[in-house]
C-alpha cells in the first residue's frame, strides 16, 4: 500500500502558501485513487496556523517539524526537516508544492532517501491503482504521463494547476517530529531581505489577469513620434488599478533590458513565450503585441484571450485570441484606466 506524504513548509505567519493547498488536493486524490494512506507533513518556525488549513483532509497522521531554525529558507535545515518528515511518515510517494523553497531542496532529499523525483507536475492521478504523474516537456509542447517503480517518489506540483483544498471541520492534532541540526547545518545565516520596490513587483502569479505589453508601446505612433512616458503611465496605471500581472513580448523585454531607457520596471522575467515563461492566469490581454507564434506558445494555459492591436491581420486575429480589438491601445487603455478610477 502506498503512503502518500503531503509535504510543505509554512510561511512566516505559520500558514501554508496557496500552492501547498493545491498540492494537497493532488495528494488527497492520489491517496484515494491508490487506496493508500495519506500523511500530512509541515515544517517551519510556526506550524500551528497550518493545522486549521488541513482540517478535513482525511489524513491518517499529521506531522510537524517546528523550529526557529526553519524561519528562513536555508538548504541544510530545510532538507533536514523534509527528510525527517519523509522518514517519520514512511512515505512511498511525497507530493509537495513547487515553491522556490521546496524546489531547491527536494532533489537532494530524494537522493538521500534513495528515491527519485519528478518536478513541475501538472497532474497526479492513479491508473489501475498505481500513481502516475503528468508533466510537460520541450517548452510545453509535449505532455507525458509517467510511472515509476522507485520509491520514495518525490513529486513537486506546479502552482495554478489544481484547485486549492478548502478546510472543513476540526484541525488535526500535529504530531511533533524532532529535528537535530549539527552546527554545520546552521552555518548559513539569513541577515535580511532585499526586495524590489512594491511598484516594481509586476509579476503576480495569483492575479486574475495577465496584461502583456508588446514592443508597439515604444514605436512611433500616428503623429510620427513615440510616446514612452505616456506608455509607462498607462501600463503602470492599469497594473496598479487592476492588480494584474505584467507580461511582455521578447521584443519589448529586449528593448527594456538592453539600455534603451524604456520601461525600467520590465525585466526578462516578464517575458512570455518560447524563450520566456508560460504563465497560468485565467485571462490574458495583449496590447501592442503582434501575437507571433514564439510569443503565443507561452499562452498555452491562458484560456480567455483578448488583444488590442492596430493591425487587423496581426497574429492574434488568426485564431490565437478569442477577441481582437482593432484599436489604438493608447486610447483603449486610457479609457479603461479612467473607468477603473471612476469605480474607485
Ligand atoms: C527562437 C525564437 C524564440 C523567441 N522567443 C520569444 C518569446 O519567448 N517571447 C516573445 O514574445 N517572442 C519571442 N520571439 C520573438 C517573436 O518571434 C517576435 O519577434 C516578438 O514576439 C515580437 O514582439 P512584439 O509583438 O511585441 O513586437 P512587434 O512585432 O514589433 O509588434 C508590435 C505590434 O504593436 C502593434 N501596435 C503598435 N502601435 C500600436 C497601438 N498604438 N495600438 C495597438 N497596437 C499597436 C503593431 O501593430 C504590431 O503588431 C522569439 C523568436 C525566435 C526566433
From TrEMBL:
Transmembrane spans: none
Keyword Transport: yes
Pfam families: ETF (PF01012)
Record key words, sorted: Electron transport, Transport
SMART domains the UniProt entry points to: ETF
Annotated SUPFAM superfamilies: Adenine nucleotide alpha hydrolases-like (SSF52402), DHS-like NAD/FAD-binding domain (SSF52467)
InterPro entries hit by this protein: DHS-like_NAD/FAD-binding_dom, ETF_a/b_N, Rossmann-like_a/b/a_fold
Domain Electron transfer flavoprotein alpha/beta-subunit N-terminal residue range list: 4-190
Protein name, UniProt field: Electron transfer flavoprotein alpha/beta-subunit N-terminal domain-containing protein
Amino acid at each position: 500500500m502506498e503512503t502518500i506524504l503531503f509535504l510543505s513548509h509554512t510561511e512566516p505567519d505559520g500558514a501554508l502558501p496557496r500552492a501547498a493547498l493545491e498540492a494537497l488536493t493532488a495528494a488527497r486524490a492520489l491517496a484515494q485513487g491508490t487506496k493508500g494512506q495519506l500523511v500530512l507533513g509541515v515544517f517551519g518556525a510556526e506550524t500551528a496556523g497550518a493545522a486549521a488549513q488541513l482540517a478535513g483532509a482525511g489524513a491518517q497522521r499529521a506531522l510537524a517539524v517546528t523550529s526557529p531554525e526553519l524561519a528562513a529558507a536555508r538548504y541544510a535545515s530545510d532538507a533536514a526537516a523534509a527528510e525527517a518528515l519523509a522518514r517519520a511518515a514512511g512515505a512511498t510517494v511525497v507530493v509537495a508544492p513547487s515553491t522556490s523553497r521546496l524546489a531547491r531542496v527536494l532533489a537532494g532529499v530524494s537522493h538521500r532517501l534513495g528515491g527519485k523525483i519528478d518536478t513541475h507536475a501538472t497532474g497526479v492521478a492513479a491508473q489501475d491503482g498505481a500513481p502516475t504523474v503528468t508533466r510537460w516537456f520541450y517548452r510545453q509542447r509535449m505532455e507525458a504521463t509517467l510511472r515509476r517503480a522507485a520509491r520514495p517518489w518525490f513529486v513537486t506540483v506546479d502552482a495554478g494547476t489544481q484547485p486549492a483544498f478548502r478546510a472543513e471541520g476540526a484541525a488535526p492534532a500535529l504530531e511533533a517530529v524532532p529535528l537535530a541540526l549539527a552546527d554545520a547545518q546552521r552555518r548559513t545565516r539569513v541577515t535580511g531581505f532585499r526586495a524590489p520596490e512594491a511598484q516594481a513587483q509586476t509579476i503576480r502569479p495569483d492575479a486574475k489577469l495577465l496584461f502583456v505589453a508588446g514592443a508597439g508601446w515604444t514605436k512611433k505612433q500616428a503623429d510620427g513620434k513615440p510616446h514612452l512616458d505616456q506608455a509607462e503611465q498607462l501600463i503602470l496605471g492599469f497594473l496598479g488599478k487592476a492588480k494584474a500581472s505584467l507580461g511582455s513580448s521578447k521584443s519589448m523585454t529586449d528593448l527594456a533590458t538592453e539600455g534603451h531607457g524604456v520601461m525600467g520596471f520590465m525585466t526578462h522575467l516578464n517575458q512570455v513565450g518560447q524563450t520566456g515563461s508560460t504563465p497560468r492566469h485565467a485571462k490574458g490581454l495583449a496590447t501592442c503585441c503582434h501575437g507571433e507564434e514564439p510569443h503565443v506558445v507561452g499562452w498555452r494555459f491562458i484560456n480567455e484571450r483578448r488583444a488590442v492591436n492596430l493591425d487587423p491581420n496581426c497574429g492574434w486575429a488568426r485564431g490565437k485570441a478569442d477577441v481582437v480589438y482593432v484599436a489604438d491601445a493608447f486610447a483603449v487603455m486610457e479609457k479603461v484606466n479612467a473607468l477603473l478610477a471612476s469605480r474607485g
